[in-house]
Every structure is written in structure tokens, then in C-alpha cells.
Design a protein that fits this description.
Radius of gyration: 34 Å
Distance between the termini: 115 Å
Shape: elongated
CATH superfamily of the largest domain: DD-peptidase/beta-lactamase superfamily
Number of helices: 19
Oligomer: single chain
Number of domains: 2
CATH architecture of the largest domain: 3-Layer(aba) Sandwich
CATH class of the largest domain: Alpha Beta
Strand order of the largest sheet: 12-11-26-25-24
Number of strands: 26
CATH topology of the largest domain: Beta-lactamase
Strand content: 15-25%
Structural class: alpha+beta
Length: about 525
């Protein structure tokens, strides 16, 4: 019996030995793993986050489009502040009461700043979007902390990479209690100083948005003809980044950036036809307009059914006479004619930023233009031809800039401090037409305003040059009336062009009625600004 008892005790001792060894080995293993080592270290302090700051999207003069408003936030330690004091500072009283009862540090939104102490820290945190954000189609919007469209998407990493938190870190004792007097570490983010600098001028952008507010659907582009900088770029209708659901439900599709979409062009394209005519020594070409141009069984009417009579190129441009330009196109070298349009930017995309790319539109091929009816339509901007407001504006810049075409640009560069631009590059340029030809076209555009007693485009404070369009679409309303696009594109001042302005009134009807008054308003407002 004794031996049997001694044997049982030995077995039990061996069992406890191996059990203890296993526990010790497991504890040693856990103590060597990084995540557990880190947890042990982290227990010595606690960090409370008050909110994030994102990078800013600026205009050319470092005026911010986002982060324009700030909210006040605070981090409080309940044991160091009375509940009544925090309730007077906070926005949500119920939230503060619930957090206060738990006794742990917490962050809350404030109506105002108070006096800071070891247990109370205040922050000014930029609000991404205020009540009214300018240039929404360019800025874009974010979802779940990531850029979804516009510059928010194109520069997502730059705008949201880096330490963005506003926070307070406290030391704690072994039980997790805050050690007041041991010092606190406050992190105030300066991320909102860095960001993206655009070529936009916030004042000109505001002028465009105000002038275009009467457009049900349309687009406006204003640029500097000397360097290709886009100064204003607005699409209508606009939308509110704080209420995207309403924008998605709007039948006018406000989320579409119409500056980047292609539309039927109409009579603005007569500038290209005239340009090729001048280059082929046909500037003296004359034509008798009887109200229509017949081509076999086809007939192309003039907007003046009684005809304009015999006229030269300048008169035909002022009168926007279709038969004249159809007749002129019959005399042109087909390949050179189409190449000129391509060199002027038709049929080519314009890359402004990642995801912000202008449609190439449609530029008929030489083979397609060999069809007489297609060539006739092409000569006055109809048929298959389509282009974007950006392309039309870029063409206008080339004419206004003495024949040098500068690719339009939207981005100046990146900034770290909100005061300087890094790695800014000038826009590319090329000569597309001669200076003499550009001068002749400018004279025609000036005449199209001031030699036309019906023009509604003449500004009050400066002379300008412009050409309007009423582009047919082949789309009809419920009453059987065709919906036409109203266009105008032009430059000012007339004597020394500096700015190009393009207006599209989608389904707006006559360009002289729907687009020309907006052109006039923009030019006058910009001159008043000067």
C-alpha cells in the first residue's frame, strides 16, 4: 500500500511539473511576440483623436477652395473639468453627459473655445466643404475618406497622405488612470497647409458661376491666351457636395462636367473654314447668297431665307452665312483643311489631370469629307463634327495669341506650405497658323460683334471679338421644335487680347440670345474687377 501511494505521488508531481513547464513556455513565447510587447508598452499612455485635416485645393493665388471654414473641437479629462463647464462649451449636451459619466478622456465638438488646462485642449479643424463650394465639378468630392471625382480623386494621395490627426496623448498609471501633471503631448496637424495649386482665379471663377446661373444646362471656360491657364471653368447646373443624393436624382444631370463633354459646334467652326481659305490665298473669295445652297438633290438653307446677296469673307462671317462657307469649302484642299482642324485641337483629348480629360469629340476623316453632303455640313460646323467647350476655347486662344496654340492647363503644381509652388511647368505651345492669318480672323470676330447691329455680345467697358453659333442637334422637344445649342467664343481686349471666353448654352437656342449676353456679362465683370 505504501509503495502504491508513493507511486501515485510521483505521477502527480510529474504531471504538475510538465503543466508548469507548458505554462512557462507559453508565457515566454507570448512575451517575445511583437504585438504583445507593443500592447504592454501602449498601456503607459492613451491618445484621444479630435479629428483629421486634409490637404487644400488652392486657386492660383493660394486662395482655398476647400477647408475654408473651421470647427472647434476639444479633448477633455472628466476628472479635471466640471460637467457644467463642458456642457456650456459643447454642441451635443447628451453626448457630453454620457462620456463624462464614464470618466475617461473624450473628444467633443464645441460652440466656442474656452480656457485650456492640463485636462482640456482645443483644436481648430478645417471643414472640408462649407455651405457653398465654388468649382464643384473641378474639386470633386470624397466618400469614405477617399477622393471619388475631380481633383479630390486625381490628387487623393497628396491630399490625404501624411500625419493628419489632431490629438492629445496622456501618460497613464498601471490601472489606466490619467496622470495629470506628467505632461500631455498635443499633435496639431498642419496638413491643410499643403495641397494642390490650380490655375483658377477664384474671383473669375465666381464671375463665371454667377453669370452662368441663368443656364439650365451649359458650360463656361475662361483662359489666359498667353499661357493657356484656365482661369474659370464652370458647368451647369452645379451641385452641392454636401447633398449628393439630390444631384444624382436631378434629371439635368448636374454631376456631369459639361466643359469636358462634346457637343455639336455650329457656326463657330466657320473660323476654321475661313482660316484655311486665307492660307490657300482665297481671302478675296466672293459668293452670292440667294438664301440656300443647292448640291444635286440636296439643299442647304441660310438662316436668312431671302439671302445676303454678294458678300466677301468678312461680311459672310458677320452674317454667319452658310452658303458662303459651303461654297468656299468646295475650293479647299481636303487634307490640309482637316489637318488644320486637327492642329487646332479638334479630334484630340485635353488632359487636365487624372480623371479630368476632355473628350476628343468627333472630327470626320478625309474619306468621310469626300462625301459632298458631309463636306458641306463640315464647312459650317454641322454633321458628324462635335467638340468640347475646352477645345473651342483652346482654338480661340490660338487665334487671339497670334497663331500660337498653348495647351490648356488646370494645375500649377504642388505646395507644401500654402505659399510656394513646387516643380511648376509652363504649358506646351506650338504655332498652328501664321500671325497674319490670326490677325485676319481676329478682325472678322471683332466685326461679327460691331458690324452686326443685332449682336448682344458687345461689352460695355472694352472692345472684344467673338463668334456665335446655333448648332442643330437632331433632337426635338414634345412640340416638335428642334433643340439647338447656343454658343459664343471670343477674346478681349480686342487690340491686345489677353483672355478667351467660351460659353455653351445646351439646348439654349440661338447663340446670340442664350450665350452672347453671358459673354458680355463675364467680360464686363472682369473689367470691373480690374
Amino acid at each position: 500500500m505504501r509503495k502504491r501511494g508513493e507511486y501515485g505521488i510521483l505521477i502527480l508531481a510529474i504531471f504538475f511539473f510538465f503543466a508548469f513547464f507548458g505554462v512557462a513556455l507559453n508565457f515566454f513565447s507570448l512575451s517575445q511576440k511583437r504585438e504583445y510587447v507593443r500592447t504592454a508598452a501602449d498601456s503607459a499612455y492613451v491618445t484621444i483623436h479630435a479629428g483629421e485635416s486634409g490637404g487644400t485645393i488652392y486657386d492660383r493665388n493660394f486662395q482655398p477652395f476647400v477647408n475654408t471654414e473651421k470647427r472647434i473641437a476639444a479633448v477633455a479629462v472628466p476628472s479635471e473639468n466640471s460637467l457644467e463647464e463642458l456642457l456650456q462649451l459643447g454642441v451635443d449636451r447628451d453626448f457630453i453627459e454620457r462620456k463624462y459619466e464614464k470618466g475617461q478622456p473624450f473628444a467633443f465638438e464645441c460652440v466656442r473655445k474656452g480656457d485650456e488646462n492640463e485636462g482640456l485642449t482645443f483644436f481648430e479643424i478645417p471643414e472640408r466643404y462649407g455651405e457653398k463650394i465654388s468649382a464643384p465639378h473641378i474639386i470633386g468630392y470624397i466618400s469614405d475618406g477617399k477622393g471619388v471625382s475631380g481633383l479630390e480623386y486625381a490628387y487623393n494621395k497628396i491630399l490625404r497622405t501624411g500625419y493628419t490627426e489632431n490629438s492629445v496623448t496622456y501618460s497613464t498609471d498601471g490601472h489606466g488612470n490619467i496622470l495629470i501633471g506628467g505632461g500631455k503631448s498635443v499633435m496639431r496637424s498642419t496638413k491643410d497647409k499643403s495641397g494642390v495649386v490650380t490655375t483658377l482665379d477664384s474671383e473669375i471663377q465666381a464671375i463665371c458661376e454667377k453669370a452662368g446661373s441663368s443656364l439650365e444646362k451649359g458650360a463656361i471656360v475662361v483662359s489666359d491666351v498667353k499661357n493657356g491657364d484656365i482661369l474659370g471653368m464652370a458647368s451647369f447646373p452645379q451641385y452641392d457636395m454636401n447633398n449628393l443624393s439630390a444631384a444624382f436624382e436631378d434629371e439635368n444631370c448636374p454631376m456631369i462636367n459639361r466643359c469636358l463633354y462634346s457637343f455639336s459646334v455650329g457656326s463657330i467652326f466657320k473660323l476654321i473654314t475661313a482660316c484655311e481659305g486665307i492660307d490657300e490665298d482665297l481671302s478675296g473669295f466672293m459668293c452670292n447668297c440667294g438664301g440656300e445652297f443647292s448640291m444635286g438633290e440636296l439643299s442647304f438653307g441660310c438662316h436668312n431665307r431671302s439671302g445676303h446677296g454678294t458678300q466677301n469673307m468678312k461680311e459672310a462671317m458677320t452674317n454667319s452665312c452658310n452658303p458662303y462657307f459651303i461654297s468656299l469649302s468646295q475650293c479647299l484642299d481636303m487634307s490640309k483643311y482637316r489637318s488644320l482642324a486637327y492642329n487646332m485641337g479638334f479630334g484630340r483629348e485635353i488632359h487636365l489631370a487624372s480623371g479630368i480629360i476632355s473628350s476628343a469629340g468627333v472630327l470626320p476623316s478625309v474619306e468621310e469629307l469626300r462625301v459632298p453632303a458631309e463636306l458641306a455640313n463640315f464647312s459650317f460646323g454641322q454633321g458628324k463634327l462635335t467638340a468640347t467647350p475646352l477645345q473651342i476655347n483652346q482654338m480661340t486662344c490660338a487665334i487671339a495669341n497670334g497663331g500660337k496654340l498653348r495647351l490648356l492647363r488646370l494645375i500649377r503644381g504642388i505646395t507644401i506650405d500654402g505659399e510656394t509652388v513646387s516643380n511648376e511647368k509652363s504649358a506646351l505651345s506650338s504655332r498652328v497658323i501664321s500671325e497674319e492669318t490670326a490677325g485676319e480672323l481676329r478682325k472678322m470676330m471683332i466685326g461679327a460683334i460691331y458690324d452686326n447691329e443685332n449682336s448682344k455680345a458687345a461689352p460695355q467697358y472694352v472692345r472684344a471679338g467673338a463668334k456665335t453659333s446655333t448648332a442643330q442637334t437632331g433632337i426635338f422637344d414634345e412640340n416638335g421644335e428642334e433643340l439647338c445649342h447656343g454658343w459664343i467664343t471670343g477674346f478681349f481686349p480686342a487690340s491686345n487680347p489677353r483672355y478667351a471666353v467660351t460659353v455653351l448654352a445646351e439646348h439654349g437656342g440661338y447663340g446670340n440670345d442664350s450665350a452672347a449676353p453671358i459673354f458680355k456679362e463675364i467680360v464686363d465683370e472682369m473689367m470691373n474687377r480690374k
